[in-house]
Amino acid sequence: MHNHILHIDTIAQTSKLNTMNPGLKIGVGILSLLLCVLSESYLFHILIAVVMIGVVIKNTKLNINHYMRLLWVPSLFIILSSIALLVQLSRVKLGFFDVSVAGWYLSITKDSLSSTITVIIRAYASITCLFMISLTTPIADVIFVCRRIKIPEIMIELMYLIYRFIMILSDVHSKMTIAADSRLGYMNLKNTYTSMKGIASNLLSLAFKRASTSFDAMESRGYIGKLNFYREEKPIQKKELILTIIYLVVIGFIFLYERKSLWRVY
Q: Which pLDDT tens digit goes with each residue over 55-90?
């Protein structure tokens, strides 16, 4: 899987949930995300994550290993952000783990450890909600829903163009990486650094050229400031509506149960 972004777009097009009403699908993902953010129970976060991952694995061609590989990029940001929550700086020892640095102490306390674990699990659960949307909903359906909820056209246009540029950038990087690998550009550390330097120096300029060509193609097809996509109507099916209601009722009940401290875990 050299090109995660393009692969994500392909997965969304071939997903079994591609025929599901996009408003219903996106609504489930957003509501699940909001409940993850509001909840303080890591068991609730794990429950949401398991459901979201299960939906994606069952209805797409992804297996669990590919899904975990998609989590690598957000994992880097989560880990770096969690360090700031985990470690506290003070003049005195505060926790069960303290390291002295130039007269100051870097401390890890039980409270900071607990809150950091909760934040990490919440972040991963929230990401699975977004992955459920992105891996099962083509960009045309996302834009359709954005227009239905009256998001300004300029924001929709910028969203698509940024999304498109990321796809182009990823595609160019993937091809350059394959080309370097075919020339034994990663056979040792020295060659790896040389290949990375060459890719970094050429990537942006080539991506801009591809983006310019893509924009010219849009204009040649009548682009005048509004994006138009062909899409089939996807009405809400009775079975989908019933399953959605059952899911929302169950997680809503669990969320309220936890908020009343009947199922709160610290």
A: 999 998 888 888 888 888 788 888 888 888 888 777
Cβ 262 vs Cβ 44: under 8 Å: no
Residue-wise pLDDT for 168-180, tens only, equals 777 777 788 888 8
Q: Which 3 state secondary structure label does DSSP give 161?
A: helix
Q: What is the pTM of this model?
A: 0.79
Residues 21/238, Cβ–Cβ less than 8 Å: no
Q: How far apart are CA 36 and CA 44, in angstroms?
A: 8
- Given phi > 0 = left and psi -120 to 50 = alpha, else beta, which region is 103? left
Across the beta sheet with 104-108, what order do the strands follow?
Answer: 88-90, 104-108, 97-101
- Residue 222 — left, alpha, or beta (φ > 0 → left; ψ -120 to 50 → alpha)? left
**Alpha-carbon distances, residue 120 vs 195, 196, 207 (angstroms):** 34, 31, 34
